[in-house]
Design goal:
Number of helices: 9
Strand content: 5-15%
Distance between the termini: 54 Å
Structural class: alpha/beta
Radius of gyration: 19 Å
Shape: globular
Strand order of the largest sheet: 2-1-3-4-5
Helix content: 40-55%
């Protein structure tokens, strides 16, 4: 049974699609945004990703680009499902994804497209290179810059930034396993290791939640009530200077 990851920020649409897939004999798992999608891909290695484009935290374009740049996931097919203008979705579909379906979708078209793409993806193998791993690491670093320009990066997006640092570091390490003398990978890896201490220092400055007493982002433990930091209206359980 093939597993399809349904990435859609609308709960009702996500549930509807998942039900249609399960009814047709496919295993459906779900993600509500781009960050959760990347976590599900790492954890479950789906056979196909059905991907919305307009989503919070990370949009579908960036998710697809990360997926296709990562040597471990580049062969997972992507089908865009979106109400974006066709010429924009098609441009990205041709470049990165295997197919595109517009909203509102027709169930028969959706299922036929997924099964066709799954069939075409069978028996396709690849060999990872140090250059490919380095490119993936650099892409994660570029994504971090999109977050770091925000004023609330460490209180609201600290967990995401930490994860992208970890993904980048792991990618450069993998590149050096493939080729221990890869100069660019070694350079990025060494710089990233130096930045890691600064990152942890910034995360430690995030105020502690007075409910659970844990620092947001530290040691992978987050506030159970507000995992991405205090809400904008300033939760009274958080202390501020």
């Amino acid at each position: 049974m093939s597993t399809v990851l349904v990435v859609e920020d609308s709960y009702s649409q996500r549930e509807c699609i998942s039900h249609q897939l399960r009814w047709s004999g496919l295993n459906a798992i779900e993600a509500s945004d781009g960050v959760e999608a990347l976590e599900q891909i790492q954890r479950n290695s789906p056979d196909l990703v059905l991907l919305d484009i307009v989503m919070p935290r990370i949009d579908g374009y960036h998710v697809c680009h990360l997926l296709k740049t990562n040597p471990d996931t580049k062969n997972i097919p992507v089908v865009f499902l979106t109400c974006k203008p066709p010429h924009l979705a098609l441009e990205w579909g041709i470049k990165y994804a295997e197919a595109y379906i517009g909203k509102p979708w027709h169930p028969k078209e959706l299922l036929a497209t997924i099964k066709r793409v799954l069939e075409n993806a069978k028996n396709f193998s690849h060999q990872s290179t140090s250059d490919a791993w380095t490119e993936y690491g650099i892409l994660n670093l570029n994504l971090i810059k999109l977050y770091e320009c925000r004023a609330d990066v460490w209180t609201k997006y600290g967990l995401q930034v930490t994860k992208f640092y970890e993904y980048a570091l792991a990618a450069f390490e993998q590149a050096l396993i493939v080729d221990p003398h890869h100069y660019q990978a070694a350079k990025y890896r060494n710089n990233l290791q130096k930045q890691w201490a600064t990152l942890l220092e910034k995360l430690a400055q995030t105020k502690a939640c007075q409910v659970c007493k844990y620092y947001h982002g530290r040691d992978g433990i987050n506030c159970a009530l507000y995992p991405f930091g205090p809400k904008q209206e300033h939760c009274r359980d958080w202390e501020f200077n």
